[in-house]
UniProtKB/TrEMBL annotation:
Pfam families: adh_short_C2 (PF13561). PROSITE patterns: ADH_SHORT. InterPro entries: NAD(P)-bd_dom_sf, Sc_DH/Rdtase_CS, SDR_fam. This is 2,5-dichloro-2,5-cyclohexadiene-1,4-diol dehydrogenase. Keywords: Oxidoreductase. GO terms for molecular function: oxidoreductase activity, acting on the CH-OH group of donors, NAD or NADP as acceptor. Belongs to the short-chain dehydrogenases/reductases (SDR) family. Transmembrane segments: none annotated. SUPFAM superfamilies: NAD(P)-binding Rossmann-fold domains. Gene3D superfamilies: NAD(P)-binding Rossmann-like Domain.
Length: 265
């Protein structure tokens, strides 16, 4: 095991990031490492998670990041992920529940199996992850649980009931976890993050699904945002660094909206 990095806003932190193969998850891993954390990137796409770890290690040095293949809907695989954090990082005190999906269909057209899959990945994964990770996190407190929700968990749409409901569940689950940890004196905080549109590979799929050029889609989305631009992954990852750091030690059970002003309308 290499020495813990001594500089940065999260120096010495040990972080597990789900959905770390691309997009926001990869950005979280890179920014946390740049600020001094050692990182375990997990994803059902194990090759993608390994690529993220390789990118981090190329920049920050070998032994900064590790990776495993990880189905976040499987409690047994969560146990393996926590064991991997113990083995590779030496413990765990930052858990970023980033893995998530969206599904198509309004209340009449959404298939129930898609509804269930959306909740399995977006919500049940956080239940399993926090339940499995808290014992190890308690040993390495102070700690921070960061659950990536969405502005769609606070503002509804007629076209995405499964996504709206699942991300709203993440919002309220985060508050319950925060209160539990505080009541038990664990010195572990829990907060939710609520982004709006961010330029990740998900938007490539959205453009393809609607037969739109990516730039046309970006312009269309930007018009819906008061600041008039779509977010970049680091706009969200920088908030994750803040929540992971001791700078946010008085913040728990809160929701951080990164939405360009949408929720202010």
């Amino acid at each position: 095991m290499t020495e813990v990095l001594g500089k940065g806003r999260v120096a010495g932190k040990m972080a597990l990031v789900t959905g770390g193969a691309q997009g926001l998850g990869r950005a979280h891993c890179i920014r946390l490492a740049q600020e001094g954390a050692r990182v375990l990137a997990t994803d059902i796409n194990g090759d993608g998670a390994a690529e993220t770890a390789a990118i981090v290690n190329a920049e920050m040095g070998a032994g900064t990041a590790f990776s495993i293949a990880h189905d976040v809907t499987d409690p047994a695989q969560w146990e393996a992920a926590v064991d991997a954090a113990r083995e590779h990082l030496g413990g765990l005190n930052v858990l970023v529940n980033n893995a998530g999906i969206g599904v198509a269909g309004n209340i009449e057209t959404c298939k129930f199996e898609d509804w269930q899959r959306c909740f399995d990945i977006n919500v049940n994964s956080i239940f399993h992850g926090c339940q499995k990770a808290l014992p190890l996190m308690r040993e390495h407190a102070p700690g921070s649980i960061i659950n990536i929700s969405s502005i769609a968990g606070l503002i509804a749409s007629d076209t995405m009931p499964a996504y709206n409901a699942s991300k709203a569940a993440v919002w309220m689950l985060s508050k319950s976890i925060a209160l539990h940890c505080a009541k038990k004196g664990m010195n572990i905080r829990c907060n939710s993050v609520h982004p709006t549109f961010v330029d990740t590979p998900i938007l490539d799929g959205t453009a393809k699904a609607h037969a739109l050029d990516k730039e046309v889609l970006m312009e269309k989305l930007a018009r819906q945002i008061p600041l008039k631009f779509v977010g970049e992954p680091n706009d969200i990852a920088n908030a994750v660094v803040y929540l992971a750091s001791d700078e946010s030690r008085f913040m728990t059970g809160a929701e951080l909206k990164l939405d360009g002003g949408i929720s202010a309308m």
